[in-house]
Amino acid sequence: MNKQYVKSQIREWTESIIIAVILALLIRTFVVQAFKIPSGSMIPTFKVSDRIFVNKFLYGAKVPFTDFNLPAVRQPKRGDIIVFISPETPKKDFVKRLIAVSGERVEIKDGKIFIDGKQADEPSIRSNYYYNAGDYGKEGAAVVVPNGSYFALGDNSASSRDSRYWGFVPKKNLLGKVIFIYWPLHRMKVMN
User: Fold this and answer.
1) I want to staple 46 with a disulfide (CB 3.0 to 4.6 A). Which of 34, 42, 138, 178 is the partner?
2) Do the beta carbons of residue 68 and residue 62 sit within 8 Å?
3) How many whole angstroms separate alpha carbon 72 and alpha carbon 40?
4) How far apart are CA 104 and CA 174, in angstroms?
């Protein structure tokens, strides 16, 4: 074989691999990222070890090594299943259901969620029983979500460490919205 041909092939393969790695990093950083469900806090929506895809550009993906976010397609809304950096343990990512946004008054009463005095009517929230617990979920106490923050709870309230305990999710901690369960195959489905 000709040395020039071998060099050309090596260069072509190297360029292809570098481009593939760059594209994969860009997609993971700004478009979609895979996560694994580590606990039972979102049962029955997710089971332990489910694998999910998270849409990162919907809420405005964070530009790495900066405090800058890309423009959002839409704002998070009640009922969305969100992935965020834990306010307690920044090296962990949590998956919870968004219950309330900035300025809303949240109360857990008789297992139901009340927003500004009215029972939440989203089916994904109404179908769960929420226990009173923690400093932010005490019985008979309502909390107001601060500006630039969210209140998030696990669907399996009896087994979830969530906003009832550690408070609010700062907007800067938001990573994205769950859009799809891709593994195991028999549980594969698009999430609303």
Assistant:
1) 42
2) yes
3) 30
4) 18
Q: 42 with 156: CB under 8 angstroms?
A: yes
Query: Active site includes 138?
Result: no
Annotated active-site residue in 56, 62, 96, 171: 96
- 102 assigned to active site: no
Q: Which CA distances in Å does 108 have to 14, 86, 165, 169?
A: 57, 22, 13, 18
Cα 75 to its chain centre, rounded Å, is 13
pLDDT tens figures, 39-80: 999 999 999 999 999 999 999 988 888 888 888 999 999 999
Out of 41, 149, 160, 163, which one is annotated catalytic? 41
The pTM assigned to this predicted structure is 0.87
